[in-house]
Amino acid sequence: MANRRFEMHEYRQILVRLRLGDSDRDISRTGLMGRRKAGQVREVAQAHGWLDVGQALPDDAALARVLSRPRQRPQTTSQVAPFEADVRKWVKAGIQGTTIHDALQRKHGFTGSYSAVRRFIQSLHLNDPKATTILEFEPGDTAQVDFGRGPTIIDVDTGEIIKTWIFVMVLAWSRHMYAELVLDQKIPTWLGCHRRAFEWFGGVPARVMLDNLKTAITKACYYDPAVQRSYAECAEGYGFRLAPNPVRQPQMKGRVESGVKYVAKAFVPLRDFRNMADGNAQLRQWLLGPAGNRIHGSTRERPLTRFTETERYVLRPLPPAPVELVQWAKVKLHGDCHVQFQQVLYSAPYTLVRQELWLRASETTVRLFRKHELVATHPRLTRRGARSTCDGHLPPEAQAFKMQDPQWCLKQAERVGPHCHELVQALFAHRVLDNLRAAQGVVGLARSYGSQRLEAACQRALAFDSPKRRTVKTILDKGLDFEPLPETTPAPLSGPYTGQGRYCRDTTDFFGTTHSN
347: which strand partners? Predict the structure, then answer.
């Protein structure tokens, strides 16, 4: 009892008994205070006139000024004091005390105990708890969103090992929530989860509180955060405002932080999932069952009851048509007049080569903008390596080459004449060369020399069995198409055919003269 510290209300009880005439021994028998200590209190009370029943008892502050004595601790220097700078730095870095103790032993030959290190760290007051404020929200005002680590699922059909994430959105007032197992945290997943969450609630909250993840906030800033363009368009379509937390202050959205932990600890363990679809089906049943009907630790009510009776009626209505979820991305137009987005190529006008463009991809279309001007529109392709090309986006020479295919060349040659058409057919019939450029060159000569001369030149080239563009061009350059063609009719034979070749010998020449008997 000698070292016991008494509170002021205990001293007041002793003073009351002393006023009633109790002796020090009587007070000791009650167990309130020892006889020696009671005697000391009696002396102090008599000196200050506290035993006078005609006066009111002093308040606790007056008693404390007289009876409280600060403990006098011996003034000793800690063994850790010489290493204060290092210890401060390590504590601010979040290193625990045992690790600091080990480091002091290794680096400085410290011989003190861990308790000495712990007491010294406490004396620095670097980890004093900070006071916080509970945020209050009105019904329908705010939803909080976050991702958490999900279960690893082994697909029973394919055997694939699937690592998942859990998307969670919690209505801040009712604590009713939506959760979904997803494969990643990319922009399409993020936006799609928002759409399904709003449809789950049947309405849209006025604000969405979130962390500074890259799919939502491209530049984290306390005063002027920059919102990802795709997410900003989604917020504009649904009519909610974004409220990103300050950097490294996740406690400001503590309700979804708790929601993520609750899903991870109450739903995920001891469950078997056949695949992603089965996992999400079980999750939805759990949200409407145990999770929605539990007694919440803060509200002391069921989240689903608070939602269905109050909050669902004050949420903003969903748009008449589902909001188009789009992705915005900055892309560069390469020298082949195409940009690349998700391993698919889309063309844009060749005049914008090497410039940066804005790409807007919806579920069905891809649009390209130069600043605010629409420069190209394509259907959305999903197969990797696919390409969507508009011929009008290519340079003129490339457009001409692409448009002048073999069928075009044959039609142009037929317009020139039958010999030109026959020559172009001969070019395409080559067994080795692809003579498309040669055929384009032949029919193109009509622009310089006219169709009549080209037809005559082709006839002369065929007569000499040389169906080549170079031959036709040489004939036209030298004006040989004006000269008569050589005689190609074969000369008649000198006599009737006797059935014997010119160089054949008679069989009698091989066997000699026949002798008669």
Answer: 338
Residue 207: name the closest of 292, 315, 313 by CA: 315
pTM flag (> 0.90): no
CA dist 204 and 318 (Å) reads 6
Q: How does strand 344-347 pair with strand 387-388?
A: parallel
> What pLDDT sits at residue 69?
66
Q: Which residues pair with 377 in a beta bridge?
A: 367
What whole-number distance in Å separates Cα of residue 202 and Cα of residue 139? Answer: 14
Domain that holds residue 32: 8-67
What is the per-residue pLDDT across 281-313, written as a single tens digit (0 to 9) for each?
Answer: 999 999 999 999 999 999 999 999 999 999 999
Measured CA distances, 33 to 68, 71, 466 (Å): 16, 20, 130
Region 446-455: mean pLDDT is 93
Is residue 178 helix, strand or coil? strand
307-344 pLDDT, tens digit each: 999 999 999 999 999 899 999 999 999 999 999 999 99
> Do 150 and 255 have their domain in common?
yes
Structural domains of the chain, count: 5
Tokens 């506290």 correspond to 50
Please classify residue 249 by burial: count the beta carbons closer than 10 Å to its beta carbon, then call 0-12 exposed, 13-18 middle and 19+ buried: exposed
Tell the residue number behind the tokens 């029973």, with chain if given.
Answer: 156
- Interatomic CA distance for residues 437 and 408, integer angstroms: 12
